[in-house]
Design a protein that fits this description.
mainly alpha; single chain
Length: about 220
């Protein structure tokens, strides 16, 4: 039987050096996101970020390859959390149902993981700003395509299919990705910037996939 003591032994706390590195990275992230969301991504320089944290440019580039990398760092964390959630869905679920449940449950659980890095509200404001920042949107969309390919391969594996011979895994993931893009665009111009808002919008849009694909849209 696992106790609190054995759990701590199994997952040891990072050492002092590692904790200092994490604090520096998180401080850079917080400052970068604050500047990006208040002054604008294009008008913020790396020099301004490192000056606010009192570190060198070299330190910044030790953690991030670019401003874009810093701006999308937490979004990458969210994407990784979602991919893992898809991997862990029960085998009996149909592909679209597995994607749906993974997405909604990820939105329910991701807040705590984000808060370990930056304030949740700050991340949500930064995430919202992606849509209105061409440089970030381009990187985000390219990364989304990579994530979709990874998920398509996961779906193919769990269904016992060859992803390069059977188009269905990529088709269902592409359709799901399109729903998420519509959701992001609508959420980015709404008044409510919360996780609950984007989760509810995701659920509402997924509920309309079936009728949208098979129903009549004509208004008499």
């Amino acid at each position: 039987m696992e106790t609190a003591d054995t759990a701590r032994t199994a997952t040891p706390r990072p050492g002092l050096r590692e904790r200092k590195k994490q604090r520096t990275r998180d401080a850079l992230l917080r400052v970068a996101l604050e500047l990006f969301t208040t002054r604008g991504f294009e008008r913020t320089t790396v020099d301004e970020i490192v000056e606010a944290v009192d570190v060198s440019q070299r330190t910044f580039f030790r953690y991030f390859t670019s401003k874009e990398d810093a701006a999308l760092f937490v979004t990458r964390l969210v994407e990784s959390h979602y991919v893992q959630a898809v991997r862990e869905r029960p085998a009996h679920e149909a592909p679209l149902e597995a994607l749906r449940r993974a997405a909604l449950e990820s939105w329910d659980a991701i807040g705590e993981a984000i808060e370990r890095v930056v304030p949740l509200e700050l991340h949500m404001r930064a995430y919202r700003a992606i849509e209105s920042t061409p440089a970030l949107l381009a990187v985000h969309l390219r990364r989304s395509m990579e994530v979709e390919e990874e998920i398509a391969r996961i779906i193919a594996e769990r269904e016992g299919l060859d992803v390069d011979a059977d188009p269905r895994p990529r088709l269902v993931v592409a359709m799901f990705g399109a729903v998420m893009r519509v959701t992001e665009r609508r959420w980015s111009v709404g008044e409510d910037v919360s996780i609950a808002a984007i989760r509810d919008l995701t659920a509402a849009h997924l509920d309309q996939v079936g009728p949208a694909l098979t129903g009549s849209w004509r208004v008499d």
